[in-house]
Amino acid sequence: MPHAIRFHQTGKPEVLQWESFDPVAPAAGEARVRHYAVGLNYIDTYHRSGLYPVPLPSGIGLEGAGVVEALGDGVDGLKVGDRVAYAGGPLGAYAEVRNIPAHRLVALPESISFEQGAAMMLQGLTAEYLLRRTYRVQPGDTILIHAAAGGVGLMVCQWAKALGATVIGTVGSDEKAEIARAHGCDHPIVYTRERFAEQVRSITGGRGVPVVYDSIGADTFMDSLACLRPMGMMVLFGAASGPVPPFDCGLLAKMGSLFLTRPTLFTYTAERDDLVAMAADLFDVVSAGKLKIEINQRYPLSEAARAHTELEARLTTGSSILLP
Ligand code: NDP
């Protein structure tokens, strides 16, 4: 029988259980995918901890790559044996095999391995919408990205650089600063030691940046706003340090007619046409060598709890995958 990671109560990584299950035939509109690699993402820790509540017991994980093993009725454009990858859909990617709505799947180009596919879909599509859709980065822009040596962070650094931007990135250590620098971050700032808002003002000659991509939340939110130039855009897309407390919107006026958005990948990829276009854009930059997928951690799928512990302890850099 195949295995999957499930959890019956929210809490620390130890709540993640390795369980066997009886696979059911895919329902109408679904495909069964045999995973060759599964993506590890920070959002998985929010589901496990209860920050993003889900009905229990639950599977976990939103990203994987593998081969189509069976199809339910009414699925067009896919056949058994196709190489596919996905980000999003129902939880349950931490599994050797799973059923998933077929409209979430994209064909994985031959030039991209299963490991790369599982590492890049969720974080790479996020980089795509952040840089190309939420705030469209222009050559000559100076941008600020937090957690620049992380999974999303290293992708944003490389992609923004390829678009002609100057990249300022915050990181938790000197070692991470070097990793970010090697991936296009012009100005790494160790925000556990330096006041990043002051550094950003100094780097930009006092002007501030047109956009901040902030996935840290509680610890950085107010200082991120202080980095923006008038009419700049605050893109709050995560909460690694905890959620931002209730906020007085009047501050946006006082701080320079700022824009604030709280986007999620799942809104941007809800329409099939958008998902396909974003994936094509991502595969293009990877195939062109502008974006290298750095898989710096690999864990057996059965050891997902250890992977969560290391991710939350800020011990990882780049992307991480789980191997069935
Ligand atoms: P990362 O690899 O970036 O890991 C998280 C990083 O956050 C850590 O390595 C650490 O880097 C930093 N961090 C800062 N403060 C803390 C803290 N208190 N506890 C733990 N980590 C902290 O993860 P991902 O690339 O998977 O995701 C990055 C962020 O983007 C997450 O917040 C995630 O939720 C968000 N996200 C949002 C999406 C959306 O559509 N809204 C989609 C995808 C991701 P350092 O030590 O350098 O500070």
Question: How would you characterize this protein structure?
Answer:
With 324 residues, the chain is of the alpha/beta class. The chain has 2 domains: 3-121 and 272-323, Alpha-Beta Complex (Quinone Oxidoreductase, Chain A, domain 1), CATH 3.90.180.10; 139-262, Rossmann fold (3-Layer(aba) Sandwich), CATH 3.40.50. Helix content is 30%, strand content 27%. It has 10 helices and 16 strands. It has helices at residues 42-49, 114-134, 151-162, 174-181, 196-203, 221-225, 250-254, 265-268, 272-287, 304-312; strands spanning 3-7, 17-20, 30-40, 58-59, 63-71, 83-87, 97-101, 106-107, 142-145, 166-171, 187-190, 209-214, 228-236, 259-261, 295-300, 319-323. The strands form 3 sheets. Strands 3, 5, 6, 7, 8, 15 and 16 form a 7-stranded mixed sheet that branches. The chain is globular and about 60 Å long. The mean pLDDT is 98. This is Quinone oxidoreductase. Residues 11-322 form the Enoyl reductase (ER) domain. Keywords: NADP, Oxidoreductase. GO terms for molecular function: mRNA 3'-UTR AU-rich region binding; NADPH binding; quinone reductase (NADPH) activity; zinc ion binding.
Q: What is the structural class?
A: alpha/beta
Q: Any idea what the CATH superfamily of the largest domain is called?
A: Medium-chain alcohol dehydrogenases, catalytic domain
| Radius of gyration, in angstroms, nearest whole number | 20 Å
CATH topology of the largest domain: Quinone Oxidoreductase, Chain A, domain 1
Task: Specify the overall morphology.
Answer: globular
Q: Provide the β-strand percentage band.
A: 25-35%
Q: Tell me what the CATH architecture of the largest domain is.
A: Alpha-Beta Complex
N-to-C SSE string, H for helix and E for strand: EEEHEEEEEHEHEHEHEHEHEHHEHE
Mean pLDDT: 98
Quote the distance from N terminus to C terminus. Answer: 13 Å
Oligomer: single chain
Which percent range fits the helix content?
A: 25-40%
Q: Please report the total strand number as a whole number.
A: 16
What is the count of distinct domains? Answer: 2
Number of helices: 10
The low-confidence parts are none
* CATH class placement of the largest domain: Alpha Beta
Q: For the report, how would you describe the main beta sheet? A: 7 strands, mixed
Query: Which ligands occur here?
Result: NADPH dihydro-nicotinamide-adenine-dinucleotide phosphate
InterPro entries: ADH-like_C, ADH-like_N, ER, GroES-like_sf, NAD(P)-bd_dom_sf, QOR-like, Quin_OxRdtase/zeta-crystal_CS
Protein name: Quinone oxidoreductase
Organism: Parazoarcus communis
Domain Enoyl reductase (ER): 11-322
